[in-house]
Amino acid sequence: MISLVLLAGLLLCQPVYLAALDKTIYGSDGRLDFFQVTDPVQRRVMDSAVSLFKSPPSLVCDGEYCRFGGWILGTEARRMCPGERFFTQKTAAFCSGTLIAPDLVLTAGHCMEAAGEEAGRCFLTKFIFGHSIAVDGDQPGLIRVSEIYSCKGKVLFAFGEGRDYAVLRLDRPVTGHKPAQVDFSPARAGTEIFTIGGPYGLPLKVLGGGVIRSVDAARGVMYTNLDSSGGNSGGGVFSAVTGKVVGLHVASADPDLVEVPLPANHGLPATDRRVIEGKCKTAAAFSAGGGYGKKAVLVPAVQGLQALLGGGASVGADTGLKNFDFSADPELVLEMEANLR
Q: Which member of 9, 70, 177, 339 lies 3.0 to 4.6 Å from 77 by CB, making a disulfide possible if both were Cys?
């Protein structure tokens, strides 16, 4: 039985928790599967994006291939409304990242930190390239082991006191994917941007049509109107003009889902909880300039990154480094259990 004190704490934290998991749409929906992308700048860099995986429900390997597990976005546990975009796609990854050197990935610090794990999530994570829908109608199912990389160690890391970033060294140089270029010049409000990542852990999307709303250089962050979500955490924020990385998505400042009456033509079975309760969840909608926006870490705020990419820093493996462990993902299990209550 959960204590009243703990329950109260969870309720107080709920808006922040939901903001980390769900999605918000500003203006028109800017999320595109890879096969839908026509912008040449976006197409040039989208291959640098990577999905972060762990645990048996997300990834099961046998021989030369690994199979994606996970649940579809439209599962009863998530209570999403029928008709939501990507309703039938699987949610399997837990964060996103960007290849910025042959063996270096930039992501969010909170993607690499978990309570009770001294070495963090580095040694539990698999970095998978190609988790996307490149052809209309395809669904990612199998992926070659050659597209899957392990984490050798944390090179740069910060999570706390307003900082949230990680640069990780992979177990080997990445082949078949070109690293994105990084822009260390000061970011400016009004700059057109896009991000690449997997909202809700879905196959990678390009989220375009965004702008930098404001820049807080002293705190090393900027606020945007990108249609991003928790699974986008760690994904690179790119200049729409140059295609260079100017930041990385880390959080939402807005509530993201709203509960609405279940549509009459829902097509769900009578036993589905959404039918029983007569309601479901849909993405919160704001005007392009509405809400508080999404938070991203500025590239210059990643301490040591410029020196690292210039060859001025190195690191060994984490002390807790071990082979990939197919242990259950406790956060994913807790999320599903909470949604089923």
A: 339
Residues whose CB falls within 8 Å of the CB of residue 1, separated by 6 or more in sequence, listed in order: none
Instruction: Indicate the pTM of the whole model.
Output: 0.81
Domain spans in the chain, listed from the N-terminal domain onward: 22-340
Mean of the pLDDT values across residues 227-247? 92
CA-angle at 74, arms to 111 and 281, nearest 5°? 85
Residue 119 binned pLDDT confidence (cut-offs 50, 70, 90): low
Print burial letters for 114-138: b (CB count within 10 Å at least 16), e (below 16): eeeeebbbbbbbbbbbbbbbeeeee
Q: Which of 191, 193, 213 is nearest to 42 (CA)?
A: 193
The tokens of 19 are what? 């903001």
Question: How many angstroms separate the CA atoms of 122 and 108, rounded?
Answer: 12
| Residue-averaged pLDDT of the chain | 80
For 281-314, letters b (16+ CB in 10 Å) and e give bbbbebeeeebebbbbbbbbbbeebeebbeeeee
Query: Which class would CATH give 22-340?
Result: mainly beta
* CB distance 53 to 125 below 8 Å: yes
The token pair at 102 is 């042959």
Report CA dihedral (186, 95, 129, 173) to the nearest 10 degrees: 60
d(CA 192, CA 209): 7
3-state secondary structure of 105: strand
Residue 24: the pLDDT is 67
Report the pLDDT value the prediction gives residue 172, as an integer from 0 to 100. 96
